């Protein structure tokens, strides 16, 4: 190849992604490793030598099954199936409309649905979670009902991430989806952390719940109402913190081990991510909590 | 190694080899959006396969071989689904704005790379962009060094021919 050609290859060698892209992918990789849902292949559970043992166990346990089934009817009466259409949540400006075989979720002043609710079978759940590019799988602890959350990476004009939530309902699942950024992260979690079905009493956790927004590792309390969201500043309302609760929140962030507190000044605390690529200053004023975001290593 | 140790190790690899893997995938497809997904998939696969890494090759070579599987899987999937030929679809989305000099020629070179067979693309990108040795490319592709040399020489020849045809106003040779 000529010198001219060599120069062209040299130029291709210089192409790099932005540090912002690099950091975003980094966080996705980290999140995927944490959730460990990556291309899980079913392990070969039954080996030949195990089959005989399994048969023996089934035989021994068989005599007990009749006894268990005798009591099943009574237990079902105590745990009736939830009608997924009969529920409430504390988030304002979000409402549902009946569609053919589901409910569609709308946000006031938006024409397009921001999510859906319906009931799915175990097979349908399996199909949804294995055939979509899910990068996060997580059990949400201490929410009103047992919830399994998946985050799908979506490439659409108006949707970047799709949240999938599954709540067990007898042998089926109540299935919610929410599209980000049609709804902000805080709105999605506000909805799911306050959901209450008429047919089943929710679990009420006595402490503040915290979640991650998107692929990020910073903790955010649930119950926030977005007031102003920009690239470098996020302002939320709606959470009347006490000094003690705010201190607990700051401690919870430190306890993740993923953020290091580098400054504190009254109600303002500054954290830096372990890799040094992100800085977050959190300020709390009564009903308002402000996050100022900085990216020290980003090339502008 | 425990789970946390493995994760930290992958993040160290990420910091060291991200740019190499990013460029490799970028020139295989010519699309930044897809590139993000496949770079992610490469490092996540490295995490799940770490126990099988026997350290006979370097980490960089091993990561390239994982990236190779990721891109070849995608190419196969698209062929099976009879989607729009991958190269044509991606060409329009490749952005060479950051290449200051000789933009048209660079774009043409990237376009020509996309017209090569996937294995030709892998060889030429690893050799010319990533400056891997013939031995390293042989490890990535699990080929003999002779086969790598022959493929490289054919790929270079095809790129030259495409260039000549374009300069003469003709139509580029399809190699797929």
From TrEMBL, chain A:
This protein's UniProt keywords: Membrane, Transmembrane, Transmembrane helix
Presence of the UniProt keyword Transmembrane helix in the record: yes
Region of interest: Disordered: 1-20
Transmembrane regions: 45-69
Highest taxon listed in the record's lineage: Bacteria
Name of this protein: DUF4367 domain-containing protein
Organism taxonomic ancestry: Bacteria, Bacillati, Bacillota, Bacilli, Bacillales
UniProtKB/TrEMBL annotation, chain B:
Domain of life: Bacteria
Key words of the record: Sigma factor, Transcription, Transcription regulation
RNA polymerase sigma-70 region domain location: 14-81
Keyword Phosphoprotein annotated: no
Record's keyword annotation contains Transcription: yes
Domain RNA polymerase sigma factor 70 region 4 type: 108-157
InterPro entries documented for this protein: RNA_pol_sigma-70-like, RNA_pol_sigma-70_dom, RNA_pol_sigma70_r2, RNA_pol_sigma70_r4_t2, RNA_pol_sigma_r2, RNA_pol_sigma_r3/r4-like, WH-like_DNA-bd_sf
Entries under Gene3D superfamilies matching the protein: 1.10.1740.10, Winged helix-like DNA-binding domain superfamily/Winged helix DNA-binding domain
Xref: NCBIfam families: sigma70-ECF
Similarity-based family: Belongs to the sigma-70 factor family. ECF subfamily.
The protein's name: RNA polymerase sigma-70 factor (ECF subfamily)
């Amino acid at each position: 190849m000529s010198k001219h050609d060599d120069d062209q290859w040299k130029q291709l060698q210089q192409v790099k992604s932005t540090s912002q892209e690099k950091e975003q992918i980094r966080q996705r990789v980290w999140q995927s490793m944490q959730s460990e849902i990556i291309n899980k292949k079913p392990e070969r559970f039954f080996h030949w030598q195990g089959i005989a043992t399994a048969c023996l166990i089934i035989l021994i346990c068989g005599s007990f099954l009749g006894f268990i089934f005798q009591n099943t009817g009574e237990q079902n009466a105590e745990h009736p199936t939830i009608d997924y259409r009969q529920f409430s949540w504390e988030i304002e400006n979000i409402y549902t409309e009946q569609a053919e075989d589901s409910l569609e979720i709308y946000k006031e002043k938006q024409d397009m649905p921001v999510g859906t609710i319906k009931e799915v079978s175990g097979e349908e759940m399996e199909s949804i979670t294995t055939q979509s590019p899910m990068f996060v799988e997580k059990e949400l602890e201490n929410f009103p009902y047992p919830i399994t959350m998946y985050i799908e990476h979506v490439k659409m004009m108006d949707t970047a991430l799709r949240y999938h939530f599954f709540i067990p309902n007898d042998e089926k699942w109540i299935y919610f989806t929410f599209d980000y950024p049609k709804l902000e992260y805080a709105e999605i979690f506000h909805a799911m952390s306050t959901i209450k079905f008429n047919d089943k009493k929710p679990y009420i956790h006595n402490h503040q719940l915290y979640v991650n927004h998107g692929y990020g590792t910073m903790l955010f309390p649930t119950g926030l109402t977005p007031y102003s969201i920009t690239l470098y500043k996020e302002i939320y309302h709606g959470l009347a913190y006490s000094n003690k609760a705010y201190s607990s929140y700051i401690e919870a962030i430190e306890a993740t081990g993923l953020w290091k507190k580098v400054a504190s000044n009254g109600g303002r605390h500054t954290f830096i991510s372990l890799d040094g690529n992100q800085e977050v200053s959190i300020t709390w004023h009564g009903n308002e909590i402000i996050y100022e975001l900085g990216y020290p290593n980003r090339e502008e | 190694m425990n789970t946390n140790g493995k994760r930290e190790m992958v993040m160290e690899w990420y910091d060291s080899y991200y740019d190499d893997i990013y460029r490799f995938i970028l020139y295989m497809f010519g699309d930044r959006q897809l590139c993000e997904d496949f770079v992610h998939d490469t490092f996540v696969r490295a995490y799940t396969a770490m126990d099988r890494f026997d350290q006979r090759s370097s980490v960089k070579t091993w990561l390239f071989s994982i990236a190779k599987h990721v891109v070849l899987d995608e190419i196969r999937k698209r062929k099976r689904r009879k989607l729009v030929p991958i190269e044509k679809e991606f060409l329009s989305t490749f952005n060479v704005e950051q290449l200051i000099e000789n933009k048209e020629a660079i774009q043409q070179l990237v376009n020509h790379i996309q017209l090569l067979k996937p294995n030709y693309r892998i060889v030429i990108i690893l050799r010319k962009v990533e400056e891997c040795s013939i031995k390293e490319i042989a490890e990535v592709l699990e080929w003999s060094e002779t086969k790598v040399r022959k493929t490289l020489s054919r790929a270079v020849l095809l790129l030259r021919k495409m260039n000549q045809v374009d300069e003469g106003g003709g139509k580029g040779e399809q190699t797929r």
